[in-house]
Design goal:
Number of domains: 2
Number of strands: 0
Distance between the termini: 70 Å
Radius of gyration: 27 Å
Length: about 170
């Protein structure tokens, strides 16, 4: 029970310092290069520091400032990696448009894919579209359709099998 009390006290202490020093921390982040993102970083900092299991901190303000700086650096690194990845991706992609023939073939194949999905039945097709297109969880689809989770999984396998067969046909031609 003492550990829980110390945890509560530590979180309340961190929150109090974050509230009292908010302007100073945001200004620190702005001066370190965060710019307009300083407020967002402060919010992330708040969430991270108040959700963690931390013990008593001897000198909390330097701890908070170091955490803020590290969070800002992490965001910067992630941003740089994302920009590099996007740049590398765009550099490897051909700049030319597909030929009219390829565009027509792709449209025909899309129609065949839609027909293959529809041919599996109404429920499997709906489950597939809800899962793969709409991004709805399988459990939610099961509730929506009034069936068990295993039925949704079986329906998805049915559609995947139909698409695999169609894919083999595309590859053979």
């Amino acid at each position: 029970m003492t550990d829980a009390r110390e945890q509560t006290d530590a979180v309340q202490g961190i929150e109090a310092i974050l509230l009292a020093e908010r302007a100073r921390i945001v200004r620190f982040l702005e001066l370190r290069g965060a710019g307009d993102a300083a407020e967002d970083i402060f919010q992330d900092l708040w969430m991270r520091l108040t959700e963690r299991q931390i013990g008593p901190i001897g000198d909390p303000l330097p701890y908070i400032m170091r955490a803020a700086n590290n969070l800002m650096l992490d965001r910067y690194r992630s941003s740089r990696q994302r920009e590099k990845r996007d740049h590398d991706w765009s550099e490897t992609q051909p700049r030319q448009r597909p030929s009219i023939e390829n565009a027509l073939i792709s449209r025909e194949q899309l129609v065949q894919v839609e027909q293959a999905i529809d041919a599996t039945g109404e429920r499997p097709a709906r489950a597939f579209r809800r899962f793969r297109v709409d991004g709805v969880a399988q459990r939610d689809i099961a509730i929506e359709l009034g069936v068990s989770l295993s039925t949704v999984e079986a329906d998805l396998r049915k559609v995947y099998a139909a698409l695999a067969t169609l894919r083999r046909q595309f590859d053979a031609s």
